[in-house]
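Need tokens for this chain, all 299 residues.
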Amino acid sequence: MNQELDSDKSIAKSTFNETAVEDGVIVLTFKNEASEVQSAVKDIDSDYIQFHFCVKGSSQFLFNEGRYKLNILEENSLLLYNPQRDLPIHLEINPYSWMVSILISIKKFHGFFSHEADYITFLSEDNRDKKYYKDGVITPSMAIVLNQLINYNLNQSIKELYFKGKAYELLSLYFNRSEDADVEQCPFLVDETNVIKIRKAKDIIVARMAEPPSLQELADEIGLSLKKLKEGFKQIYGDSVFSFLFDYKMEVARKLLESGENNVNEVGLKVGYSASSHFISAFKKKYGTTPKKYIMSLN
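Here are the structure tokens for all 299 residues:
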């Protein structure tokens, strides 16, 4: 599915949302909740710097009419800037993947760092006419802001103001130099500590998806209260623990079925269903078809 980006566009449980927060600053959110790849296209001229963040899942950037592809994986970021030529966005968003992009004009961006151009590598005199590419990891602090943008549910009348604040907060975290900030000086310490624990919780349930711990056992294992586990997981991943796990298990099951290396019963067992009837029911709930019919559709 190829979709030209429009504001608040919803397609097959997926949302592509474009918010112009002020002149020269645009926030794009892509939330693909469908079982097929979604494609998003937007013309961007060479005056803009592009910051892309993969919040969940994975996506691909296509360049030169698809002749070159660049992957961006979960919890990773990508900065693109080419003053010599336009860099239109052609993004292939994989099933159950979330992306956030910040587009900002070089003029606006330069104004933020006019006294520190040497610190921002591609703003220095020697580099300002050169193309620039950088990938990086999304920090826990950035993850909080990104999920707030993806899961925005406040009044529409304040959306532009809210997105503007969050876009600037995200950029400030992206360029934050004080990696070893003092405890007293780091306003995100509590959040960052909790986010790291929440991510550990996700890793635990993914690793033990066939026999996951109870919520209380999980909370005890990561050192958070049950309330903070539930609230934090919802904030970071946009879903409850077991709803997230269900989606993950079904995605694993779908890929296993596609590989053809296991039959339906074996796939069910691998993702934690001792009774094949329960697995078939769960798969049908998620994808609207049975595992057997899904395999047949592939052939």
